[in-house]
Amino acid sequence: MSTDVNSEVMARARGLLEDAARVFILTGVGISAESGVPTFRGEDGLWRSYRPEELATPQAFRRDPRLVWEWYGWRREKVSKCQPNPGHRALARIALDRPARIITQNVDGLHEVAAKLEAGGADWESASPLELHGSLFRVRCTECGFHGSDRAPVDATDRESLPSCPECGALLRPDIVWFGEALEPVVLAAAFDEAREADLCLVVGTSAVVQPAASLPRITSEAGGFVIEVNPQPTPLTGLADVALQGLAGVVLPTLMGD
Ligand code: APR
Fold first, then answer.
1. Ligand 1 atom closest to Cα of residue 28
2. What is the pLDDT of residue 3?
3. Which residues carry out catalysis?
Protein backbone atom coordinates (compact mmCIF):
# COMPACT_ATOMS: atom_id res chain seq x y z
CA MET A 1 0.00 0.00 0.00
CA SER A 2 1.68 3.27 -1.04
CA THR A 3 1.77 6.49 0.98
CA ASP A 4 1.67 10.11 -0.19
CA VAL A 5 5.09 10.51 1.40
CA ASN A 6 7.78 10.88 -1.27
CA SER A 7 10.46 8.26 -1.26
CA GLU A 8 13.31 10.68 -0.47
CA VAL A 9 11.57 11.89 2.67
CA MET A 10 10.78 8.28 3.65
CA ALA A 11 14.41 7.25 3.02
CA ARG A 12 15.61 10.04 5.32
CA ALA A 13 13.21 8.92 8.05
CA ARG A 14 14.31 5.30 7.67
CA GLY A 15 17.93 6.40 7.97
CA LEU A 16 17.22 8.28 11.22
CA LEU A 17 15.38 5.27 12.64
CA GLU A 18 18.17 2.84 11.66
CA ASP A 19 20.86 5.07 13.21
CA ALA A 20 18.97 5.78 16.44
CA ALA A 21 20.42 4.31 19.65
CA ARG A 22 17.24 4.96 21.69
CA VAL A 23 13.77 5.85 20.38
CA PHE A 24 11.15 7.85 22.29
CA ILE A 25 7.69 7.26 20.77
CA LEU A 26 4.90 9.72 21.67
CA THR A 27 1.38 9.02 20.42
CA GLY A 28 -1.99 10.73 20.35
CA VAL A 29 -5.42 9.48 19.34
CA GLY A 30 -4.57 9.83 15.64
CA ILE A 31 -2.74 6.46 15.86
CA SER A 32 -6.11 4.89 16.80
CA ALA A 33 -8.26 6.76 14.26
CA GLU A 34 -7.96 3.96 11.66
CA SER A 35 -9.11 1.50 14.39
CA GLY A 36 -12.37 3.45 14.75
CA VAL A 37 -11.50 5.43 17.89
CA PRO A 38 -12.85 9.01 17.57
CA THR A 39 -10.27 11.79 17.75
CA PHE A 40 -10.86 14.82 19.99
CA ARG A 41 -10.33 17.82 17.74
CA GLY A 42 -10.71 16.28 14.25
CA GLU A 43 -13.71 16.80 11.94
CA ASP A 44 -15.91 14.30 13.88
CA GLY A 45 -13.84 14.78 17.03
CA LEU A 46 -15.42 14.31 20.47
CA TRP A 47 -14.85 17.93 21.47
CA ARG A 48 -16.92 19.04 18.43
CA SER A 49 -20.07 17.45 19.86
CA TYR A 50 -19.33 17.37 23.59
CA ARG A 51 -18.11 20.07 25.95
CA PRO A 52 -14.99 18.96 27.85
CA GLU A 53 -15.91 21.19 30.80
CA GLU A 54 -19.16 19.19 31.20
CA LEU A 55 -17.56 15.75 30.93
CA ALA A 56 -13.81 15.72 31.53
CA THR A 57 -13.12 17.85 34.62
CA PRO A 58 -13.25 17.04 38.36
CA GLN A 59 -15.87 19.82 38.73
CA ALA A 60 -18.11 18.15 36.12
CA PHE A 61 -17.83 14.83 37.98
CA ARG A 62 -18.75 16.44 41.31
CA ARG A 63 -21.67 18.23 39.65
CA ASP A 64 -23.10 15.22 37.75
CA PRO A 65 -21.25 11.89 38.15
CA ARG A 66 -24.07 10.06 36.37
CA LEU A 67 -23.63 12.13 33.16
CA VAL A 68 -19.84 11.73 33.25
CA TRP A 69 -20.03 7.97 33.81
CA GLU A 70 -22.63 7.65 31.04
CA TRP A 71 -20.17 9.25 28.62
CA TYR A 72 -17.17 7.20 29.76
CA GLY A 73 -19.36 4.06 29.62
CA TRP A 74 -20.20 4.89 26.01
CA ARG A 75 -16.51 5.46 25.15
CA ARG A 76 -15.44 2.27 26.96
CA GLU A 77 -17.98 0.19 25.04
CA LYS A 78 -17.04 1.77 21.68
CA VAL A 79 -13.29 1.37 22.21
CA SER A 80 -13.58 -2.20 23.51
CA LYS A 81 -14.80 -3.17 20.02
CA CYS A 82 -11.68 -1.66 18.35
CA GLN A 83 -8.55 -3.56 17.33
CA PRO A 84 -4.98 -2.27 16.92
CA ASN A 85 -4.16 -1.26 13.33
CA PRO A 86 -0.88 -1.75 11.38
CA GLY A 87 0.36 1.54 12.90
CA HIS A 88 0.08 0.23 16.48
CA ARG A 89 1.74 -3.03 15.42
CA ALA A 90 4.66 -1.27 13.71
CA LEU A 91 5.34 0.76 16.87
CA ALA A 92 5.10 -2.37 19.02
CA ARG A 93 7.69 -4.01 16.79
CA ILE A 94 10.07 -1.06 17.21
CA ALA A 95 9.66 -1.28 20.99
CA LEU A 96 10.12 -5.08 21.02
CA ASP A 97 13.15 -5.11 18.69
CA ARG A 98 15.24 -2.23 20.02
CA PRO A 99 15.80 0.27 22.90
CA ALA A 100 12.61 2.29 22.67
CA ARG A 101 9.64 3.37 24.80
CA ILE A 102 6.03 4.07 23.81
CA ILE A 103 4.51 6.98 25.76
CA THR A 104 0.89 7.64 24.97
CA GLN A 105 -1.78 10.24 25.66
CA ASN A 106 -4.35 7.61 24.67
CA VAL A 107 -6.71 5.92 27.11
CA ASP A 108 -7.86 3.17 24.69
CA GLY A 109 -5.38 0.43 25.68
CA LEU A 110 -4.66 -0.45 22.01
CA HIS A 111 -0.86 -0.18 22.33
CA GLU A 112 -0.90 -2.91 24.95
CA VAL A 113 -3.09 -5.18 22.79
CA ALA A 114 -0.70 -4.59 19.86
CA ALA A 115 2.33 -5.39 22.06
CA LYS A 116 0.82 -8.73 23.08
CA LEU A 117 -0.11 -9.57 19.48
CA GLU A 118 3.34 -8.64 18.12
CA ALA A 119 5.12 -10.53 20.93
CA GLY A 120 3.05 -13.59 20.02
CA GLY A 121 3.07 -15.07 23.55
CA ALA A 122 6.65 -14.05 24.31
CA ASP A 123 7.53 -11.22 26.72
CA TRP A 124 5.70 -8.07 25.59
CA GLU A 125 6.62 -5.81 28.54
CA SER A 126 9.22 -3.78 26.62
CA ALA A 127 6.41 -2.64 24.32
CA SER A 128 3.91 -1.85 27.07
CA PRO A 129 3.11 1.85 26.90
CA LEU A 130 3.46 4.49 29.58
CA GLU A 131 -0.05 5.96 29.77
CA LEU A 132 0.17 9.69 30.54
CA HIS A 133 -3.58 10.33 30.73
CA GLY A 134 -4.81 7.09 32.36
CA SER A 135 -7.09 4.43 30.90
CA LEU A 136 -10.78 3.88 30.05
CA PHE A 137 -10.37 0.41 31.56
CA ARG A 138 -9.19 1.48 35.02
CA VAL A 139 -11.03 3.07 37.92
CA ARG A 140 -10.08 4.65 41.20
CA CYS A 141 -11.97 5.39 44.40
CA THR A 142 -12.98 8.95 45.23
CA GLU A 143 -12.40 8.22 48.94
CA CYS A 144 -9.93 5.47 49.84
CA GLY A 145 -7.40 5.56 47.04
CA PHE A 146 -8.32 2.14 45.67
CA HIS A 147 -7.16 1.62 42.05
CA GLY A 148 -8.28 -1.26 39.83
CA SER A 149 -9.00 -2.56 36.33
CA ASP A 150 -12.60 -2.45 35.11
CA ARG A 151 -13.79 -3.49 31.64
CA ALA A 152 -17.44 -4.03 32.67
CA PRO A 153 -20.27 -2.11 30.94
CA VAL A 154 -21.24 0.94 33.02
CA ASP A 155 -24.80 1.14 34.41
CA ALA A 156 -25.42 4.88 34.56
CA THR A 157 -29.18 4.63 35.11
CA ASP A 158 -28.98 6.65 38.31
CA ARG A 159 -26.58 7.75 41.06
CA GLU A 160 -27.02 4.45 43.00
CA SER A 161 -26.17 2.23 39.99
CA LEU A 162 -22.79 3.87 39.37
CA PRO A 163 -19.58 1.88 39.94
CA SER A 164 -18.70 1.70 43.66
CA CYS A 165 -15.49 0.86 45.48
CA PRO A 166 -15.07 -2.83 46.42
CA GLU A 167 -13.07 -1.76 49.49
CA CYS A 168 -15.05 1.12 51.03
CA GLY A 169 -18.24 1.32 48.96
CA ALA A 170 -17.67 4.95 47.90
CA LEU A 171 -18.17 6.21 44.33
CA LEU A 172 -15.52 5.15 41.81
CA ARG A 173 -14.34 7.49 39.07
CA PRO A 174 -12.63 6.73 35.72
CA ASP A 175 -8.83 6.58 36.22
CA ILE A 176 -8.34 9.31 33.64
CA VAL A 177 -6.41 12.59 33.97
CA TRP A 178 -9.02 15.29 33.49
CA PHE A 179 -8.52 18.88 32.38
CA GLY A 180 -7.15 20.90 35.28
CA GLU A 181 -5.64 17.80 36.94
CA ALA A 182 -1.94 17.04 37.24
CA LEU A 183 -0.41 13.94 35.71
CA GLU A 184 0.95 11.26 38.06
CA PRO A 185 4.38 12.68 39.08
CA VAL A 186 6.11 9.29 38.69
CA VAL A 187 4.68 8.84 35.19
CA LEU A 188 5.58 12.37 34.14
CA ALA A 189 9.13 12.08 35.49
CA ALA A 190 9.61 8.83 33.56
CA ALA A 191 8.31 10.48 30.37
CA PHE A 192 10.72 13.40 30.72
CA ASP A 193 13.62 10.99 31.31
CA GLU A 194 12.73 8.98 28.21
CA ALA A 195 12.49 12.17 26.11
CA ARG A 196 15.87 13.39 27.38
CA GLU A 197 17.69 10.07 26.93
CA ALA A 198 16.44 9.34 23.42
CA ASP A 199 18.29 10.41 20.29
CA LEU A 200 15.17 10.04 18.18
CA CYS A 201 11.57 11.05 18.94
CA LEU A 202 8.84 9.54 16.77
CA VAL A 203 5.66 11.58 17.38
CA VAL A 204 2.51 10.09 15.90
CA GLY A 205 -1.10 11.27 15.65
CA THR A 206 -1.25 14.16 18.09
CA SER A 207 -2.38 17.76 17.51
CA ALA A 208 0.32 18.69 20.05
CA VAL A 209 -1.85 21.27 21.83
CA VAL A 210 -2.18 19.59 25.25
CA GLN A 211 0.59 20.07 27.81
CA PRO A 212 2.82 18.68 29.18
CA ALA A 213 2.81 15.93 26.50
CA ALA A 214 3.23 18.41 23.64
CA SER A 215 6.54 19.62 25.11
CA LEU A 216 8.20 16.20 25.23
CA PRO A 217 9.46 16.09 21.61
CA ARG A 218 11.08 19.49 22.14
CA ILE A 219 13.10 17.98 25.01
CA THR A 220 14.54 15.32 22.70
CA SER A 221 15.32 17.97 20.09
CA GLU A 222 16.94 20.33 22.60
CA ALA A 223 19.05 17.41 23.88
CA GLY A 224 20.43 17.05 20.34
CA GLY A 225 18.11 14.30 19.14
CA PHE A 226 16.06 14.09 15.94
CA VAL A 227 12.27 14.34 15.60
CA ILE A 228 10.10 12.49 13.07
CA GLU A 229 6.41 13.49 12.98
CA VAL A 230 3.68 11.27 11.48
CA ASN A 231 0.42 13.16 10.91
CA PRO A 232 -1.73 13.88 7.84
CA GLN A 233 -2.06 17.49 9.05
CA PRO A 234 0.57 20.03 10.11
CA THR A 235 0.81 20.67 13.87
CA PRO A 236 2.75 23.07 16.14
CA LEU A 237 5.53 20.41 16.11
CA THR A 238 5.88 20.21 12.31
CA GLY A 239 8.36 23.09 12.26
CA LEU A 240 10.50 21.35 14.88
CA ALA A 241 10.47 17.99 13.08
CA ASP A 242 13.56 16.94 11.12
CA VAL A 243 11.25 14.82 8.98
CA ALA A 244 7.46 15.25 8.68
CA LEU A 245 5.72 12.18 7.23
CA GLN A 246 2.35 13.61 6.23
CA GLY A 247 0.07 10.59 5.96
CA LEU A 248 -2.01 8.11 7.92
CA ALA A 249 -0.14 6.26 10.67
CA GLY A 250 -1.58 2.88 9.67
CA VAL A 251 -0.01 3.32 6.22
CA VAL A 252 3.12 5.38 6.90
CA LEU A 253 4.50 3.41 9.90
CA PRO A 254 4.58 -0.04 8.23
CA THR A 255 6.27 1.65 5.23
CA LEU A 256 8.79 3.26 7.59
CA MET A 257 9.48 -0.24 8.92
CA GLY A 258 10.09 -1.42 5.36
CA ASP A 259 6.97 -3.58 5.05
N1 APR B 1 -2.79 8.90 11.46
C2 APR B 1 -2.01 9.85 12.06
N3 APR B 1 -2.52 10.98 12.61
C4 APR B 1 -3.85 11.18 12.50
C5 APR B 1 -4.72 10.25 11.87
C6 APR B 1 -4.12 9.07 11.34
N7 APR B 1 -4.86 8.12 10.75
N8 APR B 1 -6.00 10.74 11.93
C9 APR B 1 -5.92 11.94 12.58
N10 APR B 1 -4.64 12.21 12.91
C11 APR B 1 -4.10 13.37 13.63
C12 APR B 1 -4.88 14.66 13.43
O13 APR B 1 -4.42 15.37 12.30
C14 APR B 1 -4.58 15.42 14.73
O15 APR B 1 -3.40 16.19 14.60
O16 APR B 1 -4.22 13.09 15.01
C17 APR B 1 -4.33 14.30 15.75
C18 APR B 1 -5.42 14.11 16.79
O19 APR B 1 -5.46 15.25 17.59
P20 APR B 1 -6.50 15.39 18.82
O21 APR B 1 -7.83 14.97 18.36
O22 APR B 1 -6.32 16.76 19.35
O23 APR B 1 -6.00 14.29 19.85
P24 APR B 1 -4.70 14.26 20.81
O25 APR B 1 -3.59 15.06 20.26
O26 APR B 1 -4.44 12.85 21.13
O27 APR B 1 -5.29 14.98 22.12
C28 APR B 1 -4.45 15.17 23.23
O29 APR B 1 -6.28 16.06 24.50
O30 APR B 1 -8.51 15.87 24.82
C31 APR B 1 -7.29 15.65 25.40
O32 APR B 1 -6.62 14.09 27.05
C33 APR B 1 -7.07 14.18 25.72
O34 APR B 1 -5.14 12.80 25.31
C35 APR B 1 -5.96 13.78 24.75
C36 APR B 1 -5.24 15.09 24.51
1. 26
2. 53
3. 133
As a whole-number percent, the residues of the chain with pLDDT over 90 amount to 88
What's the average model confidence in pLDDT over 126-145? 96
- Positive or negative, the CA dihedral 181, 154, 109, 106 is negative
**End-to-end Cα spacing for the chain:** 9
Measured distance CA(229)–CA(200) in Å, rounded: 11
On the CB side of 151, CA atoms within 13 Å amount to: 5
Whether pLDDT at 1 is above 80: no
pTM for this one? Answer: 0.96
What is the chain's mean pLDDT, rounded?
95
Length of the chain: 259
Q: Within 6 Å (CB) of ligand 1, which residues are found?
A: 28-30, 33-34, 39-42, 45, 105, 133, 205-207, 210, 230-233, 235, 248-250
Asked whether 190 and 130 are in contact (CB, 8 A), the reply is yes
Helix-, strand-, coil-residue percentages of the chain, each rounded to 5 = 40, 15, 40
What does DSSP assign to residue 29?
G
At 205, which amino acid appears? G
Separation CA 51–CA 114 (nearest Å): 31
